[in-house]
Design a protein that fits this description.
Helicase, Ruva Protein, domain 3; alpha/beta; 12 helices; 2 domains; Rossmann fold; seven-stranded mixed sheet
Length: about 290
């Protein structure tokens, strides 16, 4: 892999150099130039609209060193979100790191489907199971100002990240954070909706995942077990008694899991089972209503 230029580089030169390094490593796929530019903007502390005005400016030695370090880490598979510490979700900023799953655009379908079913409720009670970074719970707090939200996770480290993100987005007073294996810590409570983006990848699929996922994101948030259905097999029966009559269960699901999830829901006598596709027409959200 090529070393760092010895001479001083301009911003434009640095972007091109970083893109070449990432192209050689194939870490960024077709997005090497975008990743290089994003990492350099992170080092410079500037916004996208400012980049053009900076293109001919030379980097300082410290900026060059910092940019080189980030490019080398990215070339070895570190997610770009871990390098910048940032990920946008539902038009809100979130801190992310190795303790939580990086929020994906696909999960916005889960949030949208939940909001559509709860937006006319005067004060919905919502449980976010496996909150991770808190992205879903924080998005609910912004979109549903009268909602009462409980964010649950088995990982104390993840709950710490979620609380930080709630504070950052000024909704910490709206969310109760609870350490819990699924819904164990809220037994006896009732909810209008239980929502989850659970781990749904089978152990056998690990080698097929990109290195930035399998080596850098928490296995607890990715892998469900031998089949990938283990979390659903526990959550679906656990959610039913905690929902009010007419309450909703909404879950993100993996590719090819629709039929198995439908069978699990129908075995538990849920009503109005439906599946919502993502932008690639892949069934992404399972929705069921308690009779």
């Amino acid at each position: 892999m090529r070393g760092m230029f010895a001479e001083s580089m301009t911003v434009g030169d640095a972007i091109a150099w970083g893109a070449d390094i990432l192209d050689e490593s194939d870490a960024s796929g077709p997005h090497s130039r975008e990743d290089s530019m994003l990492l350099l903007r992170h080092v410079l502390g500037i916004q996208p609209a400012e980049m053009h005005a900076y293109r001919e400016r030379p980097l300082t030695a410290l900026q060059t060193e910092a940019f080189n370090a980030l490019i080398q880490q990215r070339a070895h598979g570190t997610p770009i979100q871990h390098l910048t510490g940032e990920q946008e979700f539902f038009s809100l900023p979130f801190h992310v790191g190795p303790d939580v799953l990086i929020p994906r655009p696909e999960t916005e379908h889960l949030v949208e489907a939940s909001i559509a079913r709860l937006q006319h409720h005067p004060a919905p009670r919502i449980a976010d199971v496996g909150t991770g970074s808190g992205a879903i719970a924080v998005a609910f707090a912004h979109a549903l100002p009268h909602a009462e939200i409980v964010a649950l996770d088995i990982s104390l480290a993840a709950l710490g990240v979620a609380m930080r993100n709630a504070q950052r987005n000024h909704v910490a007073h709206r969310i109760r954070f609870v350490e819990s294996d699924l819904l164990a810590a809220v037994q006896g409570e009732s909810f209008d909706a239980i929502v989850s983006n659970p781990p749904y990848i089978a152990f056998s699929e690990r080698p097929t995942l990109p290195i930035e996922v399998r080596e850098h994101e928490p296995a607890l948030a990715l892998f469900a077990g031998p089949t990938g259905l283990e979390f659903y097999q526990r959550l679906i029966p656990a959610a039913h008694p905690l929902l009010v009559s007419g309450g909703w269960l909404l879950m993100e699901i993996g590719h090819g899991q629709r039929d198995a999830i439908r069978a699990l829901l129908e075995d538990q006598h849920w009503d109005s089972v439906e599946f919502i596709p993502d932008l690639q027409s892949i069934p992404r959200v399972a929705v069921a209503r308690k009779q």
